Task: inverse folding
């Protein structure tokens, strides 16, 4: 039986008695050309909260998450987070070099990436080998975002959740990241991106949603 | 045992030492005269009160009374360790965790020593249980306070990093591990320093007291060695327990970062 890659059903998030996300439902399909879904909306409408709830990083008041037809309990929390990767708007670089940053996720499950695998990942996000030995904290905003992407891709996710991936970038750097993300989706990883830019949402293509006061349409 | 008694009028002479400090503080405009004076009076009143309380405890020589005194000291230690923390949950939330961490540390250090090493008869002899118990509870209190402060402060400062570790598939244990290591090292270092310098830099208070009271120095030294080893166990066990409780307070059941705004 075929299942959708990720289903977020009737997600409700309440904070301080206020409903921030109101019964949002999303379905992401996988496959060779995986789905791209974008959520646009004004600041404070609840789109980032919904994304963090789907990433399981904040409590849901109500709602169900199904990954490949299985519940969170069946998949396991850490396995779900590896498969449904979350990249925040302003990614923090961990202590150490860029290569050490990229190796972080696999290290948590006891795996060690080879040098060739690390190089492949850094090249996949459009950067060169010379960056691998640099201190991650010295990187620019655009480089940080790409290394955060490589860091998530190291876990071989099926879904990438992206919170305003272009918000802190200049137009040229934003275009590079958007092209990169389109390539990631073409490689078989489904994307769910939150953005306040309708133009950037159109660049990514796929299905577009609008969020207003916690309601997804 | 032979020792020289200190009559009250000679005790008051010792207070002149505090006067020296007050005079120096005034001369240097340190504005500490009042604090020194109040501190000296408080210390005298508290110690005199404890002296009378110990006399009653030792006189009563009843295990229930001894245990009640120990429980009171334990509760005060737990409450004190949760005060003055600048980060993390409020005292009312932290208190049970501090109480348990201090308790398990003191328990591990005290019970085997009382059963197998000193082995007083009766086992709950107030003359041994109260001073040694107080030392262990006080040491556990400091370790727990230090571990809590460091872990809650670093978790608050690096909340975003912790969350990204979790997002990459880390368990809460893995996400917090570097902070736990740093906190435990910091908490254990003073004890290790104490171990390597004891007798070289200073003679510990209890050993000094025993020698002054006429106990044979070689026996006083043996007591001190036992105490030093107990302090090591207290620091390690209470420290690990505090870190375990802190982790439970810093993450939800679903492995999400729980923030404690102040």
Result:
């Amino acid at each position: 039986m075929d299942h959708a890659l990720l289903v977020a059903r009737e997600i409700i998030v309440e904070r301080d008695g206020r409903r921030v996300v109101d019964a949002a439902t999303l379905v992401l399909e996988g496959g060779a050309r995986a789905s791209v879904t974008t959520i646009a909306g004004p600041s404070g409408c609840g789109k980032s909260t919904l994304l963090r709830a789907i990433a399981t990083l904040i409590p849901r008041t109500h709602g169900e998450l199904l990954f490949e037809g299985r519940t969170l309990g069946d998949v396991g929390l850490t396995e779900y987070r590896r498969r449904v990767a979350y990249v925040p708007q302003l990614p923090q670089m961990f202590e150490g070099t860029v290569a050490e940053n990229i190796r972080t996720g696999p290290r948590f499950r006891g795996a060690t990436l080879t040098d060739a695998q690390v190089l492949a990942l850094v090249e996949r996000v459009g950067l060169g080998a010379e960056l691998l030995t640099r201190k991650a904290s010295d990187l620019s905003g655009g480089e940080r975002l790409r290394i955060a992407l490589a860091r998530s891709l190291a876990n071989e996710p099926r879904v990438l959740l992206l919170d305003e991936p272009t918000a802190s970038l200049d137009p040229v750097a934003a275009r590079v990241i958007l092209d990169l993300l389109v390539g990631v989706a073409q490689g078989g990883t489904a994307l769910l991106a939150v953005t306040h830019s309708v133009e950037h949402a159109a660049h990514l293509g796929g299905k577009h949603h609008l969020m207003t006061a916690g309601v997804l349409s | 045992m032979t020792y020289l008694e200190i009559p009250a009028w000679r005790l008051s002479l010792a207070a002149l030492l505090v006067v020296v400090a007050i005079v120096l503080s005034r001369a240097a405009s340190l504005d500490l005269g009042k604090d020194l004076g109040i501190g000296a009076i408080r210390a005298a009143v508290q110690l005199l009160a404890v002296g009378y309380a110990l006399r009653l405890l030792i006189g009563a020589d009843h295990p229930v009374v001894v245990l009640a005194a120990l429980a009171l000291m334990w509760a005060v230690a737990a409450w004190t360790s949760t005060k003055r923390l600048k980060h993390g949950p409020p005292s009312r939330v932290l208190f049970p965790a501090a109480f348990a961490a201090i308790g398990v540390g003191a328990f591990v250090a005290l019970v085997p020593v009382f059963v197998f090493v000193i082995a007083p008869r009766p086992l709950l002899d107030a003359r041994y249980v109260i001073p040694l118990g107080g030392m262990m509870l006080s040491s556990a209190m400091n370790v727990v306070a230090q571990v809590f402060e460091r872990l809650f402060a670093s978790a608050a400062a690096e909340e975003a990093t912790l969350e990204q570790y979790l997002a990459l598939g880390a368990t809460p244990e893995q996400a917090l591990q570097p902070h736990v290591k740093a906190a435990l090292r910091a908490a254990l270092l003073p004890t290790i320093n104490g171990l390597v310098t004891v007798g070289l830099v200073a003679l510990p208070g209890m050993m000094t007291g025993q020698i002054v009271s006429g106990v044979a120095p070689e026996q006083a030294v043996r007591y001190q060695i036992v105490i030093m080893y107990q302090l090591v166990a207290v620091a390690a066990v209470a420290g690990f327990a505090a870190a375990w409780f802190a982790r439970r307070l810093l993450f939800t059941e679903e492995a999400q970062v729980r923030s404690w705004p102040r």
In short: The first helix of chain B runs from residue 8 to 14. Residues 210 and 219 of chain B are 9 Å apart (CA to CA). Chain B has two domains: 1-60, 62-250.
